[in-house]
Task: structure prediction
Amino acid sequence: MIDFKHVKKYYPNGTVALDGVDLHIDDGEFVFIVGHSGAGKTTMTKLLLREEAVSSGTLIVGSYNLSKIKNRDIPYYRRELGVVFQDFRLFPNKTVYENVAFAMQVVGTPRSMIKRRVPAILSTVNLADKIKCFPRELSGGEQQRVALARALANNPKIIVADEPTGNIDPKMSIEIMNLLMKINKLGKTVIVVTHEKNLVDYYKQRVVMLKDGQIIEDRVGGMFA
Amino acid sequence: MRKHYSLRYFTKLAMTGLWRNGVMSVASVAVLMSCLVVLGCFALLLVNINVNLENVAQLNQIVAFCEYDLDEETITNLEAQIADLDYVDSVTRVTKEEALQEMQEQSSEYAGLYEGITDENNPLSDSFEITYEGTDETQVYDLEAQLRSMEGIRKINSVYQVAKTLDNLKNGIMLVFLWFLIILFIVSIFVIINTIKLAVYSRRSEISVMRYVGATNWFITLPFILEGVLIGVFASLIGFGVETYIYNYVENMALSDLEMITILSYGKIALPLFFGFLVVGIITGIIGSVTSLRKYLKS
Result:
């Protein structure tokens, strides 16, 4: 469960990035966050990842109140999330297996469990045959699927995808979106931040539209107006 | 869930970091090593000055020189007067003939200098070697004043004054070295900070992914702190080697040329010096790393 209550976010230069946002997302929902540049999408993502703290209001994600969370608890909160970025952020000198395993290593997962789990996750994203490849040997869509596998590595409850199709061709974009839908069907909450109208319109999921830091539309089965 | 981190994993990351920023790593080790060598020289110099000071102070001796051409009776009287003074333990007369002989023996390689000097034209005077009880400063000064005021005494040489001069010299050296050391340590901490910052910069994308997948601060920062520790360890090991060479060189030189100076054997001080280097090196390394990682430790 994600709950934004009158969330405001100001930056030190005076910019009001979010201006009294109220938003409730239930467990297992699939939500598009849409809007043009400067609408507040990135800030919303940063607040969810707890890269930034809210200026006022309350933001609750699962059992964590991000308005009051202590610094030492942030890493444990982030383990509840899986993040996918537009630029993939893979390690070029690590294989597909190592890139996914890395996310598990840093949270102290036993090696035996990593050995069992990584191939299973790579099968979920249809990359079982690329396990020994390096990112440079993969297409953009495949690299994004590795990033998705890494996001799933620690079995998070929520997946936040920030412009996941921004760097890949339309055919691959559909593939990535289908995977995100599949992950959602497995019971995970999926939040996709995007400005790609066609994709949003095609999938007909809940759409939250931002403009000037405020929600101007929130509709299930909505379109990118 | 039980955590499965290994020191090997962190050490490997730290070594990779050092290797990637080779020039800065070498610079950090070199500066910290120089710092430790100076610190070592300073410490060893002080230890040796203290040993020599103790030796000098333990002599408790004043030498009083008689006026020239005093007759035998006056000198004998003087000896008796001195022996009666407060705090005096013993008085030994050294005749000018004995003094000349001793001087000739001590400087046998310059025998030519003493050619033509005989007991008849001996330029020296008789003297008394006086030992006293206790080392209380006022007592020694009191005794020195009484000796100076005695008729027939030309001058006095007090090892107490030599000891005081050496002590002042030691304090002066300490002050100069202390400032020098502070500056060197600040420089080496800055160089280490830069090295670690470069290491952090070269791994920034890795760090950002670590943070997003929920790595704790200590997991992210430990390899960098270890990098600082490794810089400290390398600097102290090399520094100890350099210090050993310097000390042995000085010891050999001092033993052959300056026999009056006591030099402590290196075997006695090597172990404390080694651990001192290691501790100071590692602490400096950690201070450097932690300072450059403050930003990461906070957020």
Chain B has two domains: 7-56+164-298, 58-163. Residues 159-202 of chain B form the longest helix (44 residues). The beta strands of chain B are 61-66, 88-94, 127-132, 153-158. The interface with chain A takes residues 1-5, 9, 205-206, 208-217, 219, 298-299 of chain B (CB under 8 Å).
